[in-house]
Amino acid sequence: MFDIGFGELLLIAVVALVVLGPERLPKAARFAGLWVRRARAQWYSVKSELERELEAEELKRRMQDTQAALKQAQARLQDEFGQAQSQLQGELDAAGKQLDAVRREVEDRPQTPDAPATPPQEGSDESRRP
User: Which spans does this entry mark as compositional bias, Basic and acidic residues (predicted)?
Assistant: First the structure.
């Protein structure tokens, strides 16, 4: 944290011993130690709070990215569904037109006297004739 070497620390101790004297030096050392501990605790508290906020911001950003991706996927799926639905409707319309054309063709066909008006039913004697 601080770039203090052994020689500098020894010089500070000698100056403190001379200024404070041997009676007050232990109290001053305890007081300084207390303030250093409090400063460290405060530093770690601020550091952990900052890390939590950064993690929360990162999580929030990831969640927004995921929501954007989900909305994009939903829009793409809705578009594909709409295309499939319109294609299916087109196929149904074409099949309906073909069915109407076949009905008209059958209805317009002249009835012959020797041909039955209705097709024979399955299982009847007429359907077995060659």
Answer: 100-111
Tell me if 120 sits within 8 A of 126, measured CB to CB: yes
Among 33, 10, 9, 29, which residue's Cα sits nearest to residue 21?
29
Residue 4 is given by DSSP the state -
Return the SS3 of 49: helix
Q: What is the DSSP string of 70-84?
A: HHHHHHHHHHHHHHH
State pLDDT tens for residues 54-113.
Answer: 999 999 999 999 999 999 999 999 999 999 999 999 999 999 999 999 999 888 887 765
| Mean pLDDT over each residue of the chain, to the nearest integer | 86
Helix, strand, or coil (residue 62): helix
Contacts of residue 17, defined as CB under 8 A and 6 or more positions apart, other chains included, come to 25
Looking from the CA of 87 toward its CB, the CA atoms found within 13 Å total 6
Q: Is the pTM of this model over 0.85?
A: no
Please name the residues in contact with 120: beta carbons below 8 A apart, sequence gap of 6 or more: 126, 127
